[in-house]
Amino acid sequence: MKAGHNDRKNTALKEGIRDGIPIGLGYFAVSFSLGIAARNAGLNAFQGFIASLLTNASAGEYAGFSVIAQDAPYWEMALIILVANARYLLMSCALSQKFRPGTKLIHRLVIGYDITDELFGINIARPGYIEPAYSYGAILVAAPAWATGTALGVIAGNMLPANVVSALSVALFGMFIAIIIPPSKQNKIVGMFVLISFAASYLCGVLPYIKNMSEGTRTIILTVVISAVAAWKFPIKEETEKTDEA
Questions:
Q1: How far apart are CA 182 and CA 178, in angstroms?
Q2: What is the pLDDT of residues 129-164, one digit of tens each?
Q3: Is 64 in contact with 80 (CB distance < 8 Å)?
Q4: Helix count (H) and strand count (E) of the chain?
Q5: If 0-12 CB within 10 Å is exposed, 13-18 middle and 19+ buried, where does residue 48 land?
Q6: In angstroms, what CA-CA distances link 146 with 18, 33, 95, 151?
Q7: Shortest CA distance to 123 belongs to which of 100, 141, 98, 143?
Q8: Which residues, in sequence order, are CB contacts of 174 under 8 Å at separation 6+?
Q9: How far, rounded to the nearest angstrom, does the alpha carbon of residue 160 sit from its chain's CA centroid?
Q10: d(CA 111, CA 229)
Q11: What is the pTM of this model?
């Protein structure tokens, strides 16, 4: 029984590392531009590395570095970062339902430290319960890559042409699309709501008043409204998962 449990954890860890490699590569490239923002805020490479290692959130870090550059008070920094990263509260609630009953609190806290859009995507897309080892494997690759890219961006970011830095950011969007396309092809309802999300996100970015909201606030509102409508109109029937312990 215990040997089978250990084999399952080892397999999940290897799969997490495997799935985390493309995410880490995308993070490494994109975080160069974050390093530029860190350098403009007066941070050195080591400080940029620690900041990204402890806060793996592009929008939140950009907001934080901008506040640092303006020499704003701590409370303002805390408020801005809270708003920018508030959508991760929703992701955490959704992801917590994917853990096997009885999963220890320490695993939930450690995994909660690094819930990003991409890491959330690969975790939530896995069938059945999530093994903490899978999340650890992905985090072990993604988090250091993000922090290292930021540090190198501090060092070399200002030496790169602006169009090169902008082009590097496309990798992250392409990677995220690759995560949502497979389930959209398998389930027409999911695909429909993905398209609705795209359209609604675009409209919120151009409509008066709404476009003045922060990106994080708009994301929270859209997530709650669209997911609520999807759950109401197309509820998923609960299925009893077959245990692999025999």
A1: 7
A2: 888 899 999 999 999 999 999 999 888 766 766 676
A3: yes
A4: 12, 0
A5: buried
A6: 16, 11, 22, 9
A7: 98
A8: 26
A9: 26
A10: 28
A11: 0.67
